[in-house]
Write a structure and sequence with these properties.
Strand content: 5-15%
Helix content: 40-55%
Number of strands: 2
CATH topology: Four Helix Bundle (Hemerythrin (Met), subunit A)
Number of domains: 1
Largest sheet: 2 strands, antiparallel
Strand order of the largest sheet: 1-2
Radius of gyration: 16 Å
Structural class: mainly alpha
Order of helices and strands: HHHEEH
Distance between the termini: 27 Å
Number of helices: 4
CATH class: Mainly Alpha
Shape: globular
Amino acid sequence: MTQPTLTAQELITWVEKTSTGWRNLLATHPELLAAPCDVNNVQSVAQLLQHIVAVELRFAERLSDLPATDYTKIPYDSVEEIYATHDHAFSLINKLLSSNMDWDQPIEFSTRVMGPARSTPKTILFHLLLHSIRHYAQLATLARQQGIKPDWGMDYLLMNLEAV
């Protein structure tokens, strides 16, 4: 009997679909960037989005053996700036997926909150992907509270659901 597996590419596809939905919604409703937000000790939705893409970028850089971009240098003044960071992070991730990386060999890195740490690249990759999804779910609640309703299904089930 085989066990079901979720591949990195399947999870990346879900994150990209979700990110694209938010990019489009925010392009239509850029006023949402200024909405108040208390998630992760930030003040605005723009800062929450900065946090989402900063984690994507900084972990993609660590996995690529590049210096992590200074968090305060990651822009969040516009939808375009926010998602340019996301796009850059995912270009790094896609290069890594086609490389010969040993996804199970632990690496050492430093985090903003915990300091020095060690984990496998596989764990780091899945963390950055699930981290984005988790915060996008929180953002959906914030958007609805501002009277802006996302118009796409965000559940993973909808990635491969067929009506019968």
